[in-house]
């Protein structure tokens, strides 16, 4: 029997990793479709029909296709509320959960990618340092928060932790976490989760 979800991605650590990890936390079956960035698979008409922006990830579901990794993760989590990845609409944690979710999806993701880009993809030491300086206030806030809390929202693992965990892998590869003991501790806690291990996201740190 084929998987209910088909995930299109480039690499184990691209933004599709968020979807893969989320699906595994939810106990969902995934069929993986690896695309060739250099080969231009993401620009072919069949893929463009699923995502007109030609980005990854895309998830094919029985009822429709979705793109944008955070939208996919939130959609899947809300379809499986018993997982604990998303609080109920009337939960007192809902506002905090949404705030952290969108912070991780917007400011943190954009700033972290600039650091990763200039550290790993297009190495430029001066631009990496400039990008990291811009990100330092956000990392300082996260460090202080995680010194007081096990996870981002309350004391339970939830979807924003997956987004932050993904960002911390990229920042670890960029050698940006040395001053942040709490972020490294938190990253290592996340890496021990069975779904995180099965996602393959953290395995790249062992090879770096």
UniProtKB/TrEMBL annotation:
Residues 3-84 form the GST N-terminal domain. Pfam families: GST_C, GST_N. The keyword Transferase applies. CDD domains: GST_N_GTT1_like. GO terms for molecular function: transferase activity. The keyword Transferase applies. It comes from the Bacteria. InterPro entries: Glutathione-S-Trfase_C-like (IPR010987), Glutathione-S-Trfase_C_sf (IPR036282), Glutathione_S-Trfase (IPR040079), Glutathione_S-Trfase_N (IPR004045), GST_C (IPR004046), Thioredoxin-like_sf (IPR036249). Keywords: Transferase. Residues 90-208 form the GST C-terminal domain. Belongs to the GST superfamily. This is Glutathione S-transferase. It comes from Tahibacter aquaticus. The lineage of its organism: Bacteria, Pseudomonadati, Pseudomonadota, Gammaproteobacteria, Lysobacterales.
């Amino acid at each position: 029997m084929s998987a209910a979800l088909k995930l299109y991605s480039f690499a184990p650590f691209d933004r599709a990793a968020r979807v893969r990890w989320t699906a595994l936390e939810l106990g969902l079956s995934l069929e993986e479709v690896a695309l060739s960035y250099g080969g231009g698979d993401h620009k072919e008409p069949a893929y463009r029909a699923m995502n007109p922006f030609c980005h990854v990830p895309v998830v094919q579901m029985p009822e429709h296709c979705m793109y944008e990794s955070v939208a996919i993760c939130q959609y899947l989590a809300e379809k499986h509320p018993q997982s604990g990845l998303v609080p109920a609409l009337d939960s007192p944690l809902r506002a905090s959960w949404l705030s952290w979710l969108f912070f991780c999806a917007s400011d943190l993701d954009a700033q972290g990618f600039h650091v990763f880009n200039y550290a790993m993809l297009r190495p430029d030491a001066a631009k990496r340092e400039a990008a990291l300086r811009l990100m330092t206030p956000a990392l300082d806030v996260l460090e202080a928060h995680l010194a007081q809390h096990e996870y981002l929202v309350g004391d339970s693992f939830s979807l924003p932790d997956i987004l932050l965990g993904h960002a911390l892998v990229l920042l670890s590869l960029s050698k940006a976490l040395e001053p942040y003991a709490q972020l490294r501790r938190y990253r290592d806690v996340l890496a021990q989760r069975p779904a995180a291990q099965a996602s393959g996201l953290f395995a790249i740190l062992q090879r770096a």
